[in-house]
């Protein structure tokens, strides 16, 4: 059996990569995808620990998190589409109306 | 163990692919691969139901959504990811450096915290755990976790309505 | 009556308020209302006096606490009245003289368009003066002190459309302010050493080490002296009193002769415990008093404005009172206060009568032989002048002599200066009499229109004249009613023993000086009228200096012009505009600048926001791990 800590380290790496993606990329879609990756890495953590402690709590949590993520993607993508149509650019730096 | 290493490498490679691809379509496909690897992990962790749900919702629905959006509004500028030596827009040079450093710290911290945490022998009852099967999850979901379940469905409803409202053409 | 002493304050207060609000509707009746209110107060004062007299000598001091005014921590002040022989006597003098002057004013001011306002101010003055003399703590006394200053300002500048009158009012108020500063700081010292401003507390503590040591008592008394020189017009703050003659004559009589200016003497007498503790302070009082007496006396010899002669005379006589209280003869000082109130008020009212008859003329060089046309005024003025000069058997003689005797016991030098001043007094008093009322008329047209004043004005003159003559008999050496009445207040031994030989000798010298002065004046102004011109010629520049009041006014003006104004300008520009405004505006500027800097965080770039979230999370993780 693979030690739980291995899964946790893997999850941390995936999380870090996802965070890097959010920070480095300027394309709004790719930022979104990186966020999804971060959520998934956390799901992995939960499942690993659920198996570790032999309880189903973690898995239920992941289930609900997936629901939330799905909803968030749907709504978020609609917003992205609306903004991109207005600004005619997919660069997230162009959305700076809150500047000042 | 062998499986873990294989799938782990695939997951990390796919993740890097998402972040470093030049075209959004490539990123989306890398994402798909990442999700698949994770589904495999779930099976290895005795969460079969979740593995199935992962494939269906993430790989099957969310990635599809991304691809639809890419199709509808284009992929964006190809020079989006700056190469070393490119002129950086605005005042974002130093934030990128700080971001890299911050990530390293985060990674190290997470790893350290996780490893040094309380990770003793397995607890709980194997019987209740029930191999993460559908029956096990179902029996728990509709009894102890009924409220989150209902709230999740309300959330889905709200999301649907929101998506429709936001994308209507006036 | 003792418990209802506050009624004495209620009447003039009511009078002032009613006239203030309904004056225009009252018209001439305002004069009667005001006089009636003062009459009621006078009645209350008499009742109080009689009531006190009926009590045994030891039990004549009553502290009537009316209500608690303010308290903060250990600081507590009541509004209360101290009824003892001293305050009862003062109240009697104030209300009595005020009553006569109110009645006189009803006649004197009858053609003035602002008649009701005058009486509102007069009643207000009476209220404040009574507050001053009846207060049982320093703070309430200070309220009265300031109040009479205000009343004085209002009344001096009553004819405010005259620039000289308005200026005189300002001058009086500002000079008094300097003195008030002294009293305030003295009160601070008193409170910090004793912990209370109530007379009872302060005077009972007076003997303890706290006040006696380290020159605290001296500091307090010197500061009080500063205040008294302001209010009672002594050196160096006397300059406002001659200018105050711009006000109506009844005002000069009441405020600047009989009552307000005596507040300084009252303060010193009341605080006698403190002055007993500080021989330095008392010595300063005595010397300032006697030097001022001589100083003002010499100036009065050169002045030709009738009211201003009397003003300088007041300054001089107040100097005598200061001399009296400065050598410890508090009862004698108050005695002279009383007799002076009578004859000085009389002299001013008589001068007013002269003005009234001569249509406002005050220059004695234009008068002459007025006794033919204004007999009542003449005889009453003569009585007042005789009392002022200290002619034997008139009231001023007895009171002045008591003071000179006490001064002699302290220091012959003091006595000598006082004697010279007395000589000057006699000369200038009778100079006024002979130049204005005797001899030939100097201005025909003026003389032909001269007439006696109406009874509303002459009756108070007669009453005051009677007082001026007889008031001194209560202080006959051997009878010493004054000493036995007021003695217990000052811790004195009660009635003195029979007068000594030295006392009779000094009495004789004083009498000689007074009569001699009168005789000299007779010779110089009636028999040989050329003498004054010869004297003026002989003295030359010295005479001019004295005539110009020793150039003191000029000095003060120069000081203000050259020192005070530039200093004030520097403070306004440097400290106020640059410093304080700069600091306040600077605060606003800094806040704005900080805001501008803080705004730079809000870039609107999502990437930056995400970065900050990440950094925060990283910091949190690190902290959780390291903890």
Order of helices and strands of chain A: HHH
Order of helices and strands of chain C: HHEEHHHHHHHHHHHHHHHHHHHHHHHHHH
- Largest interface pair: A-B, 71 and 84 residues
Class by alpha and beta content of chain A:
mainly alpha
Give a quick account of the main beta sheet of chain C: strands, pairing sense, barrel closure: 2 strands, antiparallel
Shape of chain A: elongated
Shape of chain C: globular
If you average the pLDDT of chain C, what whole number results? 83
Q: Tell me the strand percentage band of chain C.
A: under 5%
- Could you tell me the strand content of chain A as a percent range? under 5%
Span of the ends, CA to CA of chain C: 82 Å
* Number of helices, where a helix is a run of at least 4 consecutive DSSP H or I residues of chain A: 3
Whole-angstrom Rg of chain C:
30 Å
User: Helix coverage percent of residues of chain A?
Assistant: over 70%
Low-pLDDT parts of chain A are none
Oligomer: heterotrimer
What's the helix count of chain C? 28
Structural class of chain C: mainly alpha
What this model shows, in words?
The complex is a heterotrimer of chains A (100), B (170) and C (627). Chain A is mostly helical and 100 residues long. Chain A has helices spanning 4-24, 28-53, 57-87. Chain B is 72% helix and 0% strand. Chain B has 7 helices and no strands. Mean pLDDT of chain B is 77; it is low at 118-124. Chain C is mainly α and 627 residues long. In chain C, helix 6 (163-194) runs antiparallel to helix 9. The longest helix of chain C has 48 residues, at 552-599. Chains in contact: A-B, A-C, B-C.
In short:
The complex is a heterotrimer of chains A (100), B (170) and C (627). Chain B is mostly helical and 170 residues long.
Q: Could you outline the blueprint of secondary structure elements for this entry?
A:
The complex is a heterotrimer of chains A (100), B (170) and C (627).
Chain A: H1 4-24, H2 28-53, H3 57-87
Chain B: H1 2-20, H2 24-44, H3 48-73, H4 93-115, H5 126-129, H6 134-141, H7 146-166
Helix pairs in contact in B: 1-2, 2-3
Chain C: H1 7-26, H2 29-53, E1 62-72, E2 75-83, H3 85-108, H4 115-134, H5 138-156, H6 163-194, H7 199-205, H8 209-212, H9 216-231, H10 240-243, H11 249-258, H12 263-270, H13 272-277, H14 279-300, H15 306-326, H16 330-357, H17 370-373, H18 375-389, H19 395-410, H20 412-437, H21 444-449, H22 455-470, H23 481-486, H24 501-527, H25 531-539, H26 541-547, H27 552-599, H28 606-626
Antiparallel strand pairs in C: 1-2
Helix pairs in contact in C: 1-2, 1-4, 2-3, 2-4, 3-4, 3-11, 3-16, 3-22, 4-5, 5-6, 5-11, 6-9, 9-12, 9-14, 11-16, 14-15, 14-20, 15-16, 15-19, 15-20, 16-18, 16-19, 16-22, 18-20, 18-22, 19-20, 19-24, 20-24
């Amino acid at each position: 059996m693979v030690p739980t800590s291995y899964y946790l380290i893997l999850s941390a790496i995936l999380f870090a990569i996802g965070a890097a993606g959010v920070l480095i990329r300027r394309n709004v879609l790719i930022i979104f995808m990186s966020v999804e990756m971060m959520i998934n890495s956390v799901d992995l953590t939960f499942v690993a620990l659920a198996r570790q402690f032999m309880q189903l709590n973690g898995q239920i949590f992941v289930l609900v998190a997936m629901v939330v993520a799905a909803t968030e993607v749907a709504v978020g993508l609609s917003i992205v589409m609306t903004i991109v149509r207005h600004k005619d650019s997919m660069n997230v730096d162009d959305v700076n109306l809150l500047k000042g | 163990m062998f499986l873990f290493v294989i799938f782990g490498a695939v997951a990390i490679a796919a993740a890097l692919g998402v972040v470093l691809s030049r075209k959004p379509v490539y990123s989306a496909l890398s994402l798909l691969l990442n999700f698949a690897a994770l589904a495999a992990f779930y099976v290895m962790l005795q969460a079969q139901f979740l593995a199935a749900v992962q494939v269906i919702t993430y790989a099957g629905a969310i990635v599809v959504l991304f691809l639809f959006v890419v199709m509808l509004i284009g992929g964006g500028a190809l020079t989006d990811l700056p190469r070393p030596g490119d002129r950086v827009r605005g005042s974002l040079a130093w934030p990128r450096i700080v971001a890299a450093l911050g990530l390293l710290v985060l990674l190290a911290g997470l790893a350290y915290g996780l490893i040094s945490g309380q990770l003793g022998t397995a607890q709980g009852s194997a019987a209740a755990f029930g191999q993460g099967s559908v029956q096990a999850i179902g029996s728990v979901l509709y009894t102890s976790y009924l409220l989150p379940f209902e709230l999740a469905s309300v959330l889905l409803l709200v999301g649907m309505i929101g998506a429709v409202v936001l994308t209507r053409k006036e | 009556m003792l418990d209802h002493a506050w009624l004495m304050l209620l009447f003039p207060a009511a009078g002032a308020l009613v006239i203030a609000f309904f004056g225009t509707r009252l018209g001439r009746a305002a004069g009667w209302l005001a006089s009636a209110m003062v009459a009621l107060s006078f009645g209350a004062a008499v009742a109080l006096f009689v009531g006190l007299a009926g009590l045994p000598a030891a039990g004549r001091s009553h502290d009537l606490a009316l209500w608690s005014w303010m308290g903060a921590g250990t600081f507590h002040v009541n509004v209360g009245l101290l009824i003892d022989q001293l305050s009862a006597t003062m109240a009697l003098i104030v209300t009595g003289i005020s009553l006569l002057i109110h009645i006189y004013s009803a006649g004197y001011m009858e053609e003035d368009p602002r008649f009701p306002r005058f009486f509102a101010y007069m009643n207000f003055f009476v209220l404040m003066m009574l507050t001053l003399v009846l207060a049982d703590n320093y703070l309430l006394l200070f309220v009265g002190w300031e109040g009479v200053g205000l009343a004085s300002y209002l009344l001096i500048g009553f004819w405010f459309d005259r620039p000289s009158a308005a200026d005189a009012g300002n001058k009086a108020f500002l000079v008094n302010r300097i003195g008030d500063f002294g009293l305030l700081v003295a009160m601070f010292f008193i409170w910090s050493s004793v912990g209370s401003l109530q007379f009872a507390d302060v005077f009972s503590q007076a003997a303890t080490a706290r006040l006696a040591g380290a020159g605290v008592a001296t500091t307090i008394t010197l500061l009080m002296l500063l205040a008294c020189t302001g209010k009672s017009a002594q050196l160096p703050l006397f300059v406002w009193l001659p200018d105050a003659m711009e006000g109506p004559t009844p005002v000069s009589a009441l405020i600047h002769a009989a009552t307000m200016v005596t507040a300084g003497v009252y303060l010193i007498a009341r605080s006698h415990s403190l002055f007993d503790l500080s021989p330095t302070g008392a010595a300063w009082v005595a010397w300032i008093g006697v030097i001022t007496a001589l100083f003002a006396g010499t100036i009065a010899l050169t002045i030709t404005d009738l009211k201003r002669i009397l003003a300088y005379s007041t300054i001089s006589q107040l100097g005598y009172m200061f001399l009296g209280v400065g050598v410890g003869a508090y009862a004698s000082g108050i005695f002279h206060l009383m007799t002076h109130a009578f004859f000085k008020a009389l002299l001013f009212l008589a001068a007013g009568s002269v003005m009234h008859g001569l249509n406002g003329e005050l220059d004695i060089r234009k008068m002459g032989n007025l006794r033919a046309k204004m007999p009542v005024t003449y005889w009453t003025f003569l009585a007042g002048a005789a009392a002022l000069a200290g002619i034997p058997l008139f009231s001023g003689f007895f009171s002045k002599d008591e003071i000179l005797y006490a001064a002699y016991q302290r220091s012959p030098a003091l006595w000598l200066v006082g004697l010279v001043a007395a000589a000057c007094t006699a000369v200038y008093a009778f100079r006024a009499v002979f130049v204005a009322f005797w001899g030939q008329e100097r201005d025909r047209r003026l003389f032909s229109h001269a007439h006696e004043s109406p009874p509303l004005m002459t009756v108070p003159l007669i009453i005051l004249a009677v007082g001026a003559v007889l008031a001194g008999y209560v202080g006959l050496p051997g009878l010493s009613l004054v000493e036995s009445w007021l003695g217990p207040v000052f811790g004195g031994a009660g009635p003195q023993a029979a007068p000594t030989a030295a006392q009779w000798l000094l009495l004789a010298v004083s009498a000689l000086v007074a009569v001699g002065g009168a005789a000299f004046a007779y010779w110089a102004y009636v028999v040989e009228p050329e003498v004054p011109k010869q004297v003026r010629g002989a003295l030359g520049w010295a005479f001019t200096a004295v005539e110009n009041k020793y150039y003191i006014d000029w000095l003060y003006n120069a000081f203000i012009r050259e020192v005070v104004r530039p200093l004030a300008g520097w403070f306004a520009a440097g400290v106020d505009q640059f410093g304080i405004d700069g600091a306040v505006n600077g605060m606003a500027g800094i806040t704005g600048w900080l805001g501008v800097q803080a705004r730079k965080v809000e870039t609107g770039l999502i990437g930056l926001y995400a970065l900050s979230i990440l950094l925060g999370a990283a910091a949190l993780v690190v902290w959780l791990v390291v903890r």
